[in-house]
């Protein structure tokens, strides 16, 4: 027998988070809908200690437990298994079981789905806590802190209070009036799900990689659909150590590689204007005001911690760039797909040119690169040293998880953490490295790691050695996933030069070679005095 609505929730190792999510979706907390109107399919995707059927029913009387037939790090198979068994005429999918729901979400989705035969109903996403969780967990936010925050808010008395203790997720950073990069509560008719065949099964990265963003983008691009965004209802992510939202080092690159392999193009968020549907609750008015300011161009589109200008002989320099935003973002799409001699090579065309200028002035004796991933830049550095006549090029490259598949006698690949370089770059090893050095800091782009790299090399550099802090350009990239870096490279450079600026010259000839900070490394070309 069919029902008006099925809600699918995927869980994996969420003994703490999943009960709250299901309770937030239960008839006791969802408004304007009864237990007879919907079912909740709770799908365990291979937890070591999965919930029991009795526990699931205790969370919500209309919930039933399913177990993934083929548990995998990607939840895509578990979702598609549940889609085949869902009885609702409308089916909603929560790809992440750590996301609680506002109390009007389900009834609003049912109403919104009736406005068009091919309605695609999505919702905004929030992170519980004072900031994006990728940042807040670096400053002490954790599950215990969140538990106290939720308890103090007494959210079960009024789940709309979740808005009081949350911030927009990165995917929803532009606010209520703009289509988000993805939705974490997606509702389609059962027939529409069957037409799509569910989620794309080729997405096999942990957490599904970009499977959720891919589906949302495809739905938004289909002109036959009516994309409806719920105004005033949302999901709220609990911190749980997830592979994407709560990762210290962003997995975006691996996720994007998989996306490009499947779709043959770089990912870009949808750009259409949605149909807004709903009745805004008083709790969303502050965030709605922010969204209106952003739409009028009166407020910042992205949140980041600012970096203080650096002092130079010409005066203070900020971290702005003369490169237009559209140019930077278009170039980045190309950078993410560039190769050198068949190896991924994630260098901007500006910086390729600037490194060539530097090599023409003074070919380094050793390049020491922190962060290499596939090794494309290490290979390029070695070739450029050879091309500039170096008789014995030497490149040391360090990565926390290198994926270098080639062998080259000029290049030594080391596995190590940017936060603890002394474990791999020992005094004995560094003593063998000819000068001058070119140190390239290209690790996680997070403030603590960049600070650690600068602090490690400062006492080891000699006059004439260069240190380049890469990818401060993340400040100017518009896609929401770059927010995780919180302007880390630029803040680290600013703080470092505030302490040690007397020992370094900022090479503004390189920074400004193509225009003011027309580089992916704004104010990041430093030479030891």
What report would you give on this structure?
The protein is α/β, with parallel strands linked by helices and 529 residues long. 30% of the residues lie in helices and 20% in strands. It is built from 17 helices and 21 strands. The strands form five sheets. Strands 17-16-15-18-19-21-20 form a seven-stranded mixed β-sheet, sandwiched between helices.
Head-to-tail CA distance between termini = 78 Å
Class computed from helices, strands and strand pairing:
alpha/beta
Going across the biggest sheet, name each strand in turn. 17-16-15-18-19-21-20
What is the average per-residue confidence, as pLDDT, rounded to a whole number?
Answer: 92
Low-confidence stretches: none
How large is the radius of gyration? 25 Å
**How much β-strand is present in the residues?**
15-25%
How are the SSEs placed, and which strands pair?
Elements: E1 3-11, H1 17-25, E2 38-44, H2 53-59, E3 63-67, H3 76-85, E4 88-94, E5 99-101, H4 105-112, E6 119-128, H5 133-136, H6 143-153, E7 166-168, E8 186-189, H7 190-196, H8 211-221, E9 226-237, H9 252-263, E10 275-277, H10 285-295, E11 310-312, E12 315-317, H11 325-335, E13 339-340, E14 343-344, H12 349-361, E15 366-370, H13 376-387, E16 395-399, E17 411-415, H14 427-431, E18 437-441, H15 447-457, E19 466-469, H16 488-500, E20 504-506, H17 508-511, E21 525-528
Parallel strand pairs: 1-2, 1-4, 2-3, 6-9, 9-10, 15-16, 15-18, 16-17, 18-19
Antiparallel strand pairs: 4-8, 5-9, 6-7, 11-12, 13-14, 19-21, 20-21
Helix pairs in contact: 15-16
């Amino acid at each position: 027998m069919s029902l008006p609505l099925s809600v699918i929730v995927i869980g994996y190792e969420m003994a703490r988070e999943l009960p709250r999510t299901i309770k937030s979706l239960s008839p006791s907390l969802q408004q304007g809908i009864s237990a007879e109107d919907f079912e909740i399919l709770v799908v365990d995707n291979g937890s070591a200690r999965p919930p029991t059927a009795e526990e699931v029913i205790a969370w919500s009387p209309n919930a039933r437990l399913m177990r993934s037939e083929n548990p995998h790090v990607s939840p895509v198979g578990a979702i598609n298994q549940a889609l085949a068994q869902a009885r609702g005429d409308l089916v909603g999918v929560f790809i992440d079981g750590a996301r609680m729901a506002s109390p009007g979400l389900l009834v609003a989705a049912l109403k919104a789905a009736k406005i068009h035969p091919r309605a695609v109903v999505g919702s905004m996403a929030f992170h519980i806590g004072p900031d994006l969780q990728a940042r807040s967990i670096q400053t002490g936010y954790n599950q215990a802190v969140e538990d106290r925050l939720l308890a103090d808010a007494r959210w079960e008395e009024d789940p709309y209070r979740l808005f009081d203790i949350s911030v927009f997720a990165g995917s929803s950073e532009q606010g209520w009036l703009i289509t988000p990069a993805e939705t974490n509560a997606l509702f389609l008719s059962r027939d529409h799900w069957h037409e799509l065949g569910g989620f794309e099964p080729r997405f096999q990265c942990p957490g599904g990689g970009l499977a959720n963003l891919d589906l949302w983008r495809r739905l938004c691009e289909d002109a036959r659909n009516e994309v409806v965004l719920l105004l005033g209802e949302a999901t709220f992510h609990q911190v749980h150590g997830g592979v994407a939202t709560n990762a210290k080092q962003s997995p975006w690159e691996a996720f994007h590689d998989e996306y490009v392999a499947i779709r043959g193009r770089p990912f870009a968020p949808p750009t259409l204007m949605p149909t807004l549907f709903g009745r805004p609750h008083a709790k969303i008015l502050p965030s709605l005001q922010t969204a209106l300011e952003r739409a009028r161009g009166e407020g910042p589109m992205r949140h980041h911690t600012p970096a203080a200008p650096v002092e130079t002989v010409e005066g203070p320099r900020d971290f702005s760039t003369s490169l237009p935003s559209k140019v930077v973002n278009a170039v980045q799409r190309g950078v993410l797909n560039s190769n050198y001699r068949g190896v991924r090579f994630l260098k901007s065309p500006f910086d390729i040119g600037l490194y060539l200028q530097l090599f023409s002035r003074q070919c380094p004796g050793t390049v020491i690169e922190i962060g290499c991933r596939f090794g494309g830049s290490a290979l390029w550095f070695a070739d450029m040293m050879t091309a500039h006549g170096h008789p014995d090029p030497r490149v040391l490259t360090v990565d926390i998880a290198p994926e270098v598949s080639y062998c080259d006698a000029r290049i030594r690949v080391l596995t190590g953490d940017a936060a603890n370089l002394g474990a791999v770059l020992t005094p004995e090893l560094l003593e063998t490295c000819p000068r001058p050095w070119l140190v390239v800091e290209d690790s996680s782009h997070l403030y603590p790691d960049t600070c650690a790299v600068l602090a490690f090399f400062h006492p080891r550099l000699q006059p004439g050695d260069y240190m380049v802090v890469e990818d401060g350009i993340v400040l100017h990239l518009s896609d929401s996933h770059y927010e995780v870096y919180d302007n880390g490279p630029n803040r680290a450079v600013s703080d470092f030069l505030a302490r040690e600026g007397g020992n370094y010259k900022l090479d503004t000839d390189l920074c400004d070679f193509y225009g003011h900070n027309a580089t992916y490394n704004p104010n990041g070309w430093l030479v030891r005095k």
